[in-house]
Amino acid sequence: MRRLQRTIEEVGWTKAVPTFAKQHTVAKAFDAMSREAHDCVLVVDGETLVGIFTSRDFLNRVAAVRRDPREVELGDVMTAAPKTLRPRDPVAFAINWMAIEGFRNVPIVDDAGAIRGVLTVWDVMRVMDYLTTRPDVDSARIGVVGISKGGTEAYLAAAADERIAAVASLIGVQSFGWSLRHAAAWEARAWTLRAAIEAAAADSGDAVSAPFVRKFFDRITPGLVDSFDGPMMLAAIAPRPLLVVNGDSDPRSPVGGVRQATASAERAYAAAGAREKFEFILEVDAAHEVTRDASRSVLDWFVRWLSPVKN
Question: What is the pTM of this model?
Answer without folding.
Answer: 0.69
